[in-house]
Design goal:
By secondary structure, the protein is mainly α. The chain is built from 9 helices and 2 strands. The two termini are about 15 Å apart.
Amino acid sequence: MIPVSDILVRSMSGYLFMLPIFALYFMWLKKTGRAQSLPHTVAAFVFGYYLFGLLTVTGIGFTSAIAFSPDVSWTPFVGMVTGPVETVLNIVLFVPLGFFLPLLYKSCRSAKAVALVGFLLSLAVEFFQMFGWGSSDINDLMTNTVGTCIGFLAYRLLSRVLPANLDKQLQSRFVNATAEVIFFAVCAFAIMITAQTWFVHGVLNIP
């Protein structure tokens, strides 16, 4: 298990490089007549940091060396029984994703849409872990998707008590939700395997 201090250092090191990109992105939206509300902008910044935390926990960006060395487990359910703690952590890791998606995007307010995004993001993580950043496991794919669905249910419960005006302000306006999520994820991944690894190893001198 990765120490919490290590997760914080690595995720924050990557997020520092994402902040100016986020700022420029929202400034561009404003300049093109698609200004977002303050609640949505703040929530999007928090969502962005979550993505860095997710990549850190899954091992992405611990080294800039890329080598295709797959370590794949195709046996379902066995790992869930032999490693229940890891199973729970894999579920919890994707709960925020299922919560943020419907909170930020109206088009993600269906369980099917949220589950699909969770599945695809988990699939992407498992794929990239084959390049020297960890082991790929079909159980992770299933538990991550379950975690996303639990996050969606948590949002549905919160939405019952969330003021309608605040709920509306948290939603994106005049942007393509799919394109924005992909943009955030791609930027986070690119930073984690470049600037973040350089900063952690070259500047902070952390192994």
